[in-house]
Specification:
- The complex is a heterotrimer.
- Chain A is mainly alpha-helical.
- Chain A folds into two domains: 47 residues, no CATH class; 210 residues, MetI-like (MetI-like fold), CATH 1.10.3720.10.
- In chain A, 74% of the residues lie in helices and 0% in strands.
- Chain B folds into two domains: 186 residues, D-Maltodextrin-Binding Protein, domain 2 (3-Layer(aba) Sandwich), CATH 3.40.190; 194 residues, Periplasmic binding protein-like II (D-Maltodextrin-Binding Protein, domain 2, 3-Layer(aba) Sandwich).
- Chain B is 47% helix and 13% strand.
- Chain B has 18 helices and 13 strands.
- In chain B, α9 packs across α10, α9 crosses α17 and α10 crosses α17.
- Chain C is globular and about 75 Å long.
- The two termini of chain C are 37 Å apart.
- Chain C has one domain: MetI-like (MetI-like fold, Orthogonal Bundle).
- Classes of the chains: A mainly alpha, B alpha/beta, C mainly alpha.
């Protein structure tokens, strides 16, 4: 009896989570003739027309590539800069430590619309509009608070005798960080990387205003451009949604254990 | 402290080097940045660009592509111009933007390049829409206007002519629905979602009763709105039209779910390839009183940025894309109704779009939306007002109208 | 300056620099802008707190504030509850747990814009999946969910809950895993049943994780934008308009930068208040344990 109930619960959980996605997958496999049928058909006619259109006509793979570049670079930069900053904030004696930490955290509380105007003007002056760094830099700034926060709370948990023994060996702060903390912090670094990557992969608002050259546009902007003046190509959109989501699904599928263990070790104790 | 500055500086320089933006002028070639939307039929634009580059090897067009939704595209272009972004030379403008772009000083007056003798070749409505404070700011590319689509087979079967009044349309719907007894057959579909299209559809209905959107409290306006709420939506048209833009409303019509349908000319070619192909007729939109049929004016034009460093080259681009040859090209290959009048006697244009002939008088008399630099705000106020009035059965129309009138007054007061 | 301090500053510098340049300075600009009337059609003029006065007296703005608060409260409450449920399920040991865990994380990985488009399509009154689920093939009964006030509000909240419950679940699961197994053993020996164990051990020890999830979700919920932008644009009427979308409407389509900035400052103040309260609570919790 217990097992039956539990199985039902599991099925419900899975349906809740992937049901809508399955419907979009289903829609993407329909044909233009069946897509607007009333009532909707449950079994798709298994056409790949919409995928072909998304990839060929809408040049979708280019957006995927741009997103990979932007999200990848953002992840690298945010994790690198975040790790550098988190170590002293967690372990070293420095005046203004709390002040700096709260300032960085406060930065995560502001609505994006307030920031985008200033960022646009700055990028215009630097000549970085329509370039990958033009998006990577603001994304890094927006994700750094989260990165620093997770990493700082993780670094705080590391027992100080490790650090002391390194000191005895004559290591300076930099060497201590590199030799002792970074290896131990791997899971937290990893979790941070995933969170940052997903943020950068999904961000729409900055990308829309900053990237107007199709050669550098990211995936959410690409999807926003699917509709024509009066037309909404639901099928192509569904196919695009599937393509946009699959890399992340694979990522999550492969890495879910590490995502969870990193969070357990780091953030939650913060 | 010095080290901090150093690191920071290196970071920025490093990132800047990484970039590849900026306008590089090769020897003798001027580049023109053209901000356009993603075209419905990309091939037509690609070939147009190729033709341009062949004719003008000294100019290179760099295309920046935004979303096609008029409001999303507006935000993008406005953001660039507001910041005096020098990388914008020419851009597409929706028919409703000219007063805003002119009053804000973003668009360049084109009077010297686009004299009245040239203007006369375009529909008067398009030209009027491009004028602000006595100067002209845009060159029209195409024209749009609302029309009534109907199911020829059903109207023939019941012996009806296309209705000229809204009351007649409702009567025809009642008879056809009673006769067909099909729960899936609705009477009417149109665009009543809260977006710019709602303004277009409602302007047609309100003005066909002698009302004005800018005078929400006038009895004619209120009467027309009450008609839409009480007799159209939820009755002749499904409740869902309150969430429909062009695509959803056309889907309903082409899947055989509606007898009448309001849309732009593009829908004609879409319906040709749908389950109701060959059963579709077009007519002027109905009105409340005789000879008051109203169609909302739409369409796009090119403007040139006041901050452009190459206005001459930009003009060459604009002139080329709005020339008779190119308007014919877009009519034939992308189904866009030309803004130039003579093309409506062009055999190639008419062969590809036989319905344009019937549309000509509709285009000639199409009605513009309110003209003001604060149009986006006025539009938002009206959208909120109209959508509340239509979606809430128990809404107090008079109170809503009074509020909208006050809000519009405040908005218009913002322009000096 | 001793060498440790120097090193500390040098290490923190790049982060502070990036955040200062790309977030803090635009924020300061926004604060200053909120005190001006700033449109392209008239000279920029200082108007003190007028923008804020309008913000609290204009009925469109107050309606927007009201729905934003409803959205924040209802969606975070549901997300925490559902997140807790999901976390408890995927914390159990069973065959295929890895796959179920990955499935639970999928909504979180889907871009918000895509999720919004998906839900809008699924809520369509003619070919929507939601109607198919509720009414089968009886098209005449299909409902236009986004056409009336309360169902549209529910739809926006529902889409957000679907999209982000898994993130809450992730944080809560991490909390569950840090509860030592022997506590349960001890309780079992003392004869406490499952319900008692949940309320006596699990819930109290989960409090930090739950509060953390609450903090993250609330901060995000105040800034909801993409779902409204894609699904309703504030319709019907203004009943699903939220502050960040309202601010966006003012700043970008309507070009009222001063007033739009005031809206964004208000969002910031609301978030700051909630965050301060929650962070305080989290901290005291940790000291207690």
């Amino acid at each position: 009896m217990r097992r039956v109930v539990f199985t039902i619960v599991i099925v419900a959980v899975v349906l809740f989570s992937i049901g809508p996605f399955m419907w979009i997958l289903n829609t993407s496999l329909k044909s233009p003739q069946t897509i607007a049928e009333r009532p909707p058909t449950i079994i798709p006619d298994l056409q790949t027309e919409f995928f072909a259109a998304a990839v060929d006509e809408h040049n979708f793979m280019r957006y995927v590539g741009n997103s990979a570049i932007v999200a990848g670079l953002t992840t690298l930069l945010a994790v690198l800069v975040g790790t550098l900053a988190a170590y002293p904030l967690a372990r070293l004696r420095m005046p203004w430590r709390r002040g700096i930490l709260s300032l960085v955290l406060a930065a995560s509380m502001f609505p994006q619309i307030a920031i985008v105007g200033g960022v646009y003007r700055l990028l215009l002056k630097l000549g970085l509009l329509n370039t990958h760094p033009g998006l990577v830099l603001p994304y890094t700034a927006l994700t750094l608070p989260l990165a620093i926060w997770i990493l700082t709370s993780f670094f705080k948990e590391i027992p100080s005798d490790l650090e002391d023994s390194a000191r005895v060996d004559g290591c300076g702060p930099l060497a201590t960080m590199w030799r002792i903390f970074v290896p131990v912090a791997a899971p937290a670094v990893f979790t941070t990387a995933i969170l940052v990557f997903i943020y950068a992969w999904n961000e729409f608002f900055f990308a829309l205003l900053i990237m107007t050259d199709p050669a550098v546009q990211t995936l959410p902007v690409g999807i926003a451009k699917f509709p024509g003046e009066y037309m909404v190509p639901w099928g192509e959109l569904a196919a695009a949604a599937v393509i946009a989501t699959i890399p992340l699904v694979v990522l999550v599928l492969v890495l879910q254990r590490r995502i969870i263990s990193g969070l357990t070790a780091g953030a939650v104790k913060g | 402290m010095r080290r901090i500055v150093l690191i920071a500086g290196m970071l920025i320089v490093g990132m800047a080097l990484f970039g590849c933006g900026g306008s590089d002028t090769e020897s003798g070639v001027t580049s023109v940045n053209l901000v356009v939307w993603k075209p419905n039929i990309p091939a037509a634009w690609d070939s147009a660009l190729a033709m341009f580059h062949e004719a003008h090897p000294d100019i290179k067009i760099v295309r920046e592509i935004g979303p096609h939704s008029s409001s999303q595209f507006h935000d993008l272009v406005a953001q660039k111009l507001r910041n005096q972004d020098p990388s914008v030379d020419a851009f597409l403008m929706d028919v409703i933007w000219t007063p805003e772009f002119a009053a804000a000083g973003w668009a360049m007056p084109l009077d010297e390049r686009f004299p009245p003798s040239e203007q006369d070749k375009f529909f008067d409505g398009c030209i009027q829409a491009d004028v602000w404070d006595g100067k002209i700011y845009g060159v029209p590319l195409n024209i749009d206007a609302g029309i009534l689509y109907y199911r020829k087979d059903l109207l023939d079967q019941y012996g009806f002519e296309p209705p000229t009044t809204w009351a007649a349309m409702i009567d025809q719907i009642d008879s056809i629905q009673a006769g067909e007894n099909d729960p899936n057959l609705n009477g009417f579909s149109g665009q009543f979602r809260q977006y710019e299209g709602l303004i277009c559809d409602m302007l047609e209905i309100v003005q066909s009763n002698g009302g004005r959107l800018t005078e929400p409290e006038s009895p004619e306006t209120m009467e027309a709105i009450a008609f839409v709420r009480n007799e159209l939506i939820g009755d002749a048209a499904p409740e869902g039209v309150l969430t429909y833009s062009e695509q959803e409303s056309l889907d309903l019509f082409t899947s055989g779910g509606a007898v009448f349908h309001r849309n732009w000319p593009y829908a004609w070619s879409v319906s040709k390839e749908s389950p109701i192909a060959g059963q579709v007729g077009i007519a002027r939109l109905p009105s409340f009183k005789d000879d008051m049929s109203t169609s909302t004016l739409g369409g796009w034009r090119f403007g040139i940025s006041r901050y452009s460093k190459n206005p001459d080259a930009a003009w060459t681009v604009v002139e080329f894309f709005t020339s008779p040859q190119m308007q014919r090209h877009f009519a034939v290959n992308a189904g866009r109704a030309p803004a130039r009048k003579t093309l409506y006697q062009d055999s190639a244009v008419l062969a590809a779009n036989p319905h344009f002939e019937e549309m000509y008088p509709v285009f000639e008399t199409a009605t513009p939306r309110p003209r003001t630099p604060v149009y986006p705000e006025v539009s938002n106020i009206l959208q909120r007002f109209l959508h509340s009035a239509l979606s809430q059965d128990d809404a107090d129309l008079e109170a809503l109208a009074a509020k909208a009138a006050t809000e519009m007054e405040t908005a218009l007061g913002r322009v000096q | 300056m001793n060498s440790e301090r120097k090193a500390a500053y040098a290490l923190v510098a790049p982060a502070v620099f990036i955040v200062a340049v790309f977030v803090l300075s635009p924020i300061v600009q926004a604060f200053i802008n909120s005190l001006y009337r700033d449109t392209p059609f008239s000279p920029k003029t200082f108007i003190g707190l007028d923008n804020y006065r309008t913000l609290f007296s204009d009925s469109v703005a107050t309606g927007t504030i009201e729905f934003t608060l409803i959205f924040v409260i209802v969606s975070t409450a549901l997300e925490i509850l559902i997140g807790l449920g999901l976390a408890l399920v995927i914390h159990e040991h069973f065959k295929g747990r890895g796959l179920v865990r990955a499935a639970v994380l999928i909504p979180w990985a889907i871009p918000t814009v895509v999720a919004g488009v998906m839900w809008k399509y699924m809520l369509n009154d003619q070919y929507g999946f939601v109607n198919l689920v509720f009414y089968g093939s009886n098209v005449a009964n299909y409902v236009a969910w986004l056409a009336s006030e309360w169902s549209a509000r529910m739809a926006i909240i529902g889409a957000d809950v679907w999209k982000t419950s898994s993130f809450a679940a992730l944080l809560i699961l991490a909390g569950l895993q840090s509860i030592p197994e022997d506590l349960y053993e001890a309780a079992r020996i003392d004869g406490a049943n499952a319900v008692k164990r949940f309320f006596r051990i699990t819930l109290p020890l989960l409090k930090p994780a739950i509060l953390l999830a609450l903090l993250f979700r609330m901060m995000d919920a105040f800034r909801v934008f993409a779902l409204v932008y894609v699904m309703t644009q504030g319709a019907p009427g203004g009943s699903t308009n939220v502050l960040q979308y309202y601010g966006y409407q003012k700043m970008f389509p309507e070009q009222q930068f001063g007033y739009g900035s005031a809206v964004s400052v208000l969002v910031f103040v609301m978030i700051a208040i909630v965050a301060t309260i929650l962070i305080r609570t989290v901290r005291t919790r940790i000291y207690e344990s």
